Amino acid sequence: MRKVRIIARLDIKGQNLIKGVHMEGLRVIGSPAEYAHKYYQQGADELIYIDTVASLYGRNNLSDLLERSVENIFIPLTVGGGIRSVEDATRLLRSGADKVAINTAAVANPGLITEISRRFGSQCMVLSVQAKSIGPKKWEVFTENGRERTGLDVLEWIQKGIQLGAGEILLTSVDREGTRKGFDVDLVRAVAEQTTVPVIASGGMGNVAHLVQVAKEGLADAVAMADVLHYERLTIGNIKEEASSNGIQLRKYAKS
Amino acid sequence: MEKIQYPEEVDLSKFQTDEPNEVYYGLPKKVAFCKKCVISNQRPNSAVEYKHTKDSKKATIHFDENGICDACNFTERKRHTIDWNLREKQLRELCDKHRKTDGSYDCIVPGSGGKDSFYASHILKTKYGMHPLTVTWAPHVYTDWGWKNFQSWIHAGHDNYLMTPNGRVHRLLTRLSTELLFHPFQAFMFGQKSLAPKMALLFDIPLVFYGENEAEYGNPIGDTESAQRDWSYFTVEDKSKVFLGGVSVQDLTEQFGVDRNDLQPYLPADPTQIQKKGIEVHYLGYYLKWHPQSAYYYAVEHGGFQASPERTPGTYSKYNSIDDRIDDFHYFTTGIKFGIGRASYDAAQEIRSADITREEGVALVKKFDHEFPERFADEIFSYLSLPDTEFPTASKMFEKPIMDREYFRLLTNQFRSPHLWKFEEGKWRLRHGL
């Protein structure tokens, strides 16, 4: 039986944890390290750190911030934002990341997926995809935190990404992100049905029913959440308890 | 009025020198940037569009002795000096005075259903117990998401009158304002400024709420001392002095073949009527601390407002001013005339609101400002074209009634002030940067 991973997603800008709506109107929430530690304490299975504006400002990555954040955190950590080369990935992995998530640079240079996957293993190479609905069962890939269109079809792009060596998909719905209206279940299911690699559903979680739905109907392997945690609408403890009682298999919470 | 000639190539020599001596529009000759935000001293204040002609001079944003713009200084007042509890109390008093309980409307809120008007009308209705009638002056050409957001606004619980002016007249006025003033947004602004007071007259609703004061973005800081909007924006005593698209009403009717009735929507209100009926036009932003990002969050939360699916050309933003396809050209043209692109406006506002740092703002301006608005360009050029089949009289007033890319390029160059633009190595670039 598939066990669903509960992932806290921390979007970062500069030194701050931020949150947007539809990936726009980015609001400063607080210190990423503090929030990361809190979610670890609460029993998150994994953390995702994304520098949301690294590509936008053409600046580079999170390694300093990361080193400070991960000192006392012993769960897998995926880091993304502004990774444009194997060297960028190496630096982040050395600073404490377990996996790297790549979006903008992967679209610009799909060969990077293969290079990173060959060098560090496909489990390390997370393809981050920002998807926007453009018609019934049709989604377009966006880059630069949901700002730039690419003309790529989400399903085709993910298929190609997996062939090139991506080992996991971080799938964010720009339409739902920050709205608390639930995941784009059709999107997640469409992607999950065509791949063998794990799919992390991201964007739109407002309550536990949304999680249950995207796991059961969307076939998500993992669920990423931000708004519900950052604004303390729910804790990971609440979420795990309620999800369990709704028949979702979760990892056992065993904090060291 | 003489026939409008096809624009000639500009004399490049005055743009190639290092010592330009021409300054257009009455702008300050020496360019300076605010030390706190990214706006430059070339930013014009709001003008009374009825008086706008080819020879109009601009008053521009004031910088203090420390090189800080009035908009930033006003933000300091917003943060530290203004007693917002007192202001809210004043709002409640104003609402109490005007609130109707007999089933009629008690105030008018003009807007597009964008984040700011959504916030204004919704909070007046739900928090302050008012009964607003919302009125909308249609964009030139709706974007799909602008139309959807407009619908969401209404469906979030508002009555609305949508006034859509005659498309042919609107196109003609827009062509004229583009051609003569390089201001393709002007026809919209006439209605934006005067529709609500005129609807107030029509429906006998004496209270109108606009959103934030333009002084938040650089109009004279003194304007923020009053809750009420200056009448000069929406009234005029002598209609013979009205210019639309830089052309007098008389020329429009006599030479461009426009029926006087078709100009009705653009004409300002009669000030004696406004006075007689006691119509008051207030800024809600005088009473409630305005924060565009919070208005966005509010509109998403209460009405399913959606950011646009892609960033607007010339900027990074997806939530600001997204209803009208011609808007891209509005910012492009002001960028040509004043050297300030759309990212500069957006970043300046977000820096003041502390949503981004100045360093981030500078990077955004460098990355996006002055990008050519390619996405709707062909559509806008045909919107600006006046084929003789559709415009039998007006088209004869133009040497070339059809607007195309080359026409627009030549026109664009007419409006570059030599003190701002340099032409070198076959390219236009701004002489000054952040």
Automatic annotation (TrEMBL), chain A:
EC number, UniProt record: 4.3.2.10
Catalytic activity field: 5-[(5-phospho-1-deoxy-D-ribulos-1-ylimino)methylamino]-1-(5-phospho-beta-D-ribosyl)imidazole-4-carboxamide + L-glutamine = D-erythro-1-(imidazol-4-yl)glycerol 3-phosphate + 5-amino-1-(5-phospho-beta-D-ribosyl)imidazole-4-carboxamide + L-glutamate + H(+)
GO annotation terms (biological process): L-histidine biosynthetic process
EC category: lyase
InterPro entries named in the record: Aldolase_TIM, His_biosynth, HisF, IGPS_HisA/HisF, RibuloseP-bd_barrel
Gene3D superfamilies: Aldolase class I (3.20.20.70)
Domain of life: Bacteria
Keyword Translocase: no
GO molecular function annotations of the record: imidazoleglycerol-phosphate synthase activity; lyase activity
Keywords: Amino-acid biosynthesis, Histidine biosynthesis, Lyase
Binding partners and assembly: Heterodimer of HisH and HisF.
UniProt record similarity statement: Belongs to the HisA/HisF family.
Function: IGPS catalyzes the conversion of PRFAR and glutamine to IGP, AICAR and glutamate. The HisF subunit catalyzes the cyclization activity that produces IGP and AICAR from PRFAR using the ammonia provided by the HisH subunit.
PANTHER family the record matches: IMIDAZOLE GLYCEROL PHOSPHATE SYNTHASE HISHF (PTHR21235:SF2), IMIDAZOLE GLYCEROL PHOSPHATE SYNTHASE SUBUNIT HISF/H IGP SYNTHASE SUBUNIT HISF/H (PTHR21235)
Protein name according to UniProt: imidazole glycerol-phosphate synthase
TrEMBL record, chain B:
Taxonomy, superkingdom: Bacteria
Name recorded for this polypeptide: N-acetyl sugar amidotransferase
InterPro entries registered for this protein in UniProt: N-acetyl_sugar_amidoTrfase
A molecular function (GO) term: transferase activity
Keyword terms of this UniProt record: Transferase
